[in-house]
Amino acid sequence: MKKIPSIMIVVWGIAVLCTLFLSSCKRPEVLDNSTLVNSARNVALTFGPAYVPFFKEANVSDVQVFKKEDYGGDGRSQIRKQIGRKFYTVTFTYDSTAVKFNFGFAARVRIWKDTGEPLDVIFGNGWGRNFFFLSFKEQTDHSANDYEKVASDSIVKVPLQTVHEPENIWNSNADNKQDCLSTRDFLTNTEKEKIKELASQVPDSIRNRFAVLVDKWNFAIDHNPKTLYSASTYSYAKLPEFIPLKSMGKQIVPLIMERMINPSDFYFLVLYEAVMEGNETNDDSKFSKSEQIRAIRCVKKWLDRTF
């Protein structure tokens, strides 16, 4: 009989310890809607700031469950282990009478219920980013709840594209267009021809070597995990394949400019900065809406100095 009180004390102690442990691990069952919207907005500001001015309303979904089909049945472990986790979807609508995107929203952000961290973001043009392989914090150095401290200068931002937007920015007839964009934010047909003319003057031996090294660099970008899941174009400059390109020096600048005519090749900006040692890009272009716009402005500035 004397053992009963002792056993009860032990059981009580274990119960207390279990309670404390569960309390320390406990997550809020329901995230406040304002917190969800604020976090989602910060994610959008970080990766697609050009879409934020078009936000109309923020709609928060009920709790959803992540399924295998959510990512097309992708079997990679980083995605597979998320199956069964609960999340919320924050959808930012827009005024379709003022602008038209390919999707029915300006941005959509999904946030994990248990951690409050973003799962992925997709914008109205269909582009986006997921945080399975590198979390939002790993890609930006800060939490989605603290946008003011997010190191976003070098983050690759999704360009603004409406149903008609590509023609406004990159159209060869841009000389004759009047639109809401600043004239320094798109390349005219005349400017493109000047760039091609200058690039054609580079000796064939240099052009050929440049093309070979660019192919190797692009292959590394597409296959190296450090760049494949990175939000920063500056990670491209850390690849071994970047070194021989940089060593070619200023003689390849016209070839870099020729590449940056193409909207998808804006990341050649990091090569230009490396070749010029950053001296030619220390201007207000660093505070433009996106890396794509900054690349355009650098091309235009270079042309102004050349002619």
* Uncertain residue segments: 22-29, 165-184, 283-289
Q: N-to-C terminal Cα separation, in Å?
A: 101 Å
Output the radius of gyration: 25 Å
Helix content: 40-55%
Output the helix-strand order.
Answer: HHEEHEEEEHHHHHHHHH
Please state the structural category.
Answer: alpha+beta
Overall residue-averaged pLDDT value:
78
Biggest β-sheet, characterized?
6 strands, antiparallel
Number of domains: 2
Note the beta-strand portion.
Answer: 5-15%
Principal-axis shape: globular
Total number of helices: 12
Describe the overall structure:
With 307 residues, this protein is α+β, with helices and mostly antiparallel strands. It has two domains: 117 residues; 142 residues, no CATH class. The chain contains twelve helices and six strands. Strands 1, 2, 3, 4, 5 and 6 form a six-stranded antiparallel beta sheet that branches. Strand 5 and strand 6 form a beta hairpin. Helix 6 packs antiparallel against helix 10. The radius of gyration is 25 Å and the shape is globular. About 11% of the residues have low confidence. This is Lipoprotein.
Summarize the helices and strands and which ones pair or pack.
Elements: H1 3-25, H2 33-47, E1 55-60, E2 64-65, H3 77-80, E3 86-94, E4 107-112, E5 118-123, E6 128-130, H4 136-140, H5 165-170, H6 189-200, H7 204-223, H8 225-228, H9 242-247, H10 253-259, H11 269-275, H12 291-306
Antiparallel strand pairs: 1-3, 2-3, 3-4, 4-5, 5-6
Helix pairs in contact: 6-10
Question: Summary?
Answer:
The protein has twelve helices and six strands. With 307 residues, it is α+β, with helices and mostly antiparallel strands.
